[in-house]
Amino acid sequence: MGEKFDFVVMAATGMQGRIVTRDLLENGYSVLLCGRDKKRVEHLLHKHKRTAFEHIDARNMDHMIKVFKHSGAKVVVNCIEGDWNLNVLKAAIKADMHSLDLGSEIPMTKDQFALHDTLKNKKLIHITGCGSVPGIGNVLLNYAAAKFDTLHSIEVGFAWNSNIKKFVVPFSMDSIIDEFTEPATNIKDGKFTKIRPLDSLIKTHEPFVGKENCMFVRHPETYTFYKYFKHKGLKNVRFYAEFPPHSFDVIKQLIDLGFGNHKKISVDGAQIRPVDALTQTLKDLKFPNGYKEKENLWLRLYGKHKGKSKQILIECIVGTNKGWEDAGCNIDTGMPASIMAQMIKKEIINEYGSFAPEAVVPPSPFFKELKKRQMIIYENGKKIN
Questions:
Q1: Is residue 271 included in any domain, yes or no?
Q2: Is the pLDDT of residue 172 over 90?
Q3: Cis peptide leading into 288, omega within 30 of 0?
Q4: Are residues 60 and 177 in the same domain?
Q5: Is 32 within a domain?
Q6: Pick from 351, 357, 360: nearest CA to 120
Q7: How many domains does the chain have?
Q8: Which of 92, 203, 290, 336 is most deeply buried (CB count within 10 A of its CB)?
């Protein structure tokens, strides 16, 4: 590999990796695409000259470090499933590279934060959770929290819907199964609590997106929001996921039929997990013609300012952009990661260590970049970007 690149994108062959890669390329950067299925990105490799592909497996640390070092890049954008985030982070540290990812569960997030001093001493930056939620939502919090003297409660979530009521895979199927089945972690009165997501199910109506099935789900924001804002008196954090009925019903049926099972079963002598078979089967599911999505990433903050009670609702509204129809609302996960990677390269983000976005991403330039990509932010109903 003789050519040098601006960025390395891990799992560039997946949905989010392709979005990150395309956004970086269309902003004039060179990208080394790393993944396992080159066919999925051949259109990008053919269209953009400043690219190359490297077959890579996050389990092979030595190879990953070698590829990172030889790339010439200073930033790795990691779009792999969260279970491998620590591996990629450690490889990036060995290669003296900044890195960011799309987030993972709370234990993995804590493991990444444990490397804060190592990164700081090496003058490296790592940001975890750089997509939609976590990602955009964290920066919305950074912006809104500054308007409170004390902040006692935060509700955060996402709601999405589509014009054609047909099942598509809205994001990582593995992550969706976990959100439906794994206990949701909330913070109540300063203590972590757990609840089965489907036991919290309620019907809602979101003005921007329509009728939804809403429930608590586990997300790293409950931990990172509390970590960074408990000094303001934060006591309660709850995360909500809202799915349209036509999507919710199919997902629940698949789970009820056993396709969300993580335990291996024997199929023709091979040991496979049903959830992996489901994920692979649905990978090539296409959006129907004319399909469009809309998503609302939202936060409600409750606290006080100058002795008076204060409440803020802040939302980021995302639709299906022209030319990005095959991505739907997934742009609100891939594009923020691209934006933050560019902000690191430009030294707009310049604090060393391991962070979540609410700690280091400046809202104003980030919001401007979201607007360029037709992601609009509202504060109590008023457009602010």
A1: no
A2: no
A3: no
A4: no
A5: yes
A6: 351
A7: 2
A8: 336
Whether residues 62 and 141 share a domain: the answer is no
Q: Is there a single domain that holds both residue 225 and residue 77? A: no
Q: Which of the four pLDDT bands, split at 50, 70 and 90, describes residue 156? A: very high
Alpha carbon distance, N-terminus to C-terminus of the chain = 41
Angstrom distances, CA of residue 175 to CA of 9, 126, 250:
20, 22, 15
Q: Find the DSSP H helices in the chain.
A: 15-26, 42-47, 61-71, 85-94, 106-113, 116-121, 136-145, 173-181, 221-229, 245-256, 274-282, 331-345, 357-360, 363-372
Q: Note if the pTM is more than 0.90.
A: yes
The residue whose two tokens read 């023709």 is 268
Beta strands 125-127 and 353-355 are parallel
CATH number of the domain where residue 353 is located: 3.40.50.720
Distance CA 34, CA 66 (A): 13
State the DSSP code for 129: -
Q: Based on the fold, state whether residues 44 and 141 are members of the same structural domain.
A: no
- HEC readout, 221-261: HHHHHHHHHHHHCCCEEEEEEEECHHHHHHHHHHHHCCCCC
Range of the domain at 75: 7-131+333-362
Same domain as 105, residue 194:
no
Checking if the pLDDT of 1 tops 80, the result is: no
Q: CA dist 356 to 77, 143, 278, Å? A: 14, 14, 31
Query: Can you say how many angstroms the Cα of residue 317 is from the centroid of all Cα atoms in its chain?
Result: 16
CATH assignment of the domain containing 251: 3.30.360.10
253-301 pLDDT, tens digit per residue, is 999 999 999 899 999 999 999 998 998 888 878 889 999 999 999 999 9
Looking at the structure, tell me whether residues 179 and 311 fall in a common domain.
yes
User: By the 8 A CB rule, do 58 and 83 touch?
Assistant: no
In a domain, residue 188? The reply is yes
* pLDDT at position 2 over 70: no
Q: What's the mean pLDDT in 121-131? A: 98
Token representation of residue 3: 């050519």
Ramachandran region of residue 135, left (φ > 0), alpha (ψ -120 to 50) or beta? left
Examine the domain organization and report whether 172 and 293 are in the same domain.
yes
The SS3 of residue 147 is coil
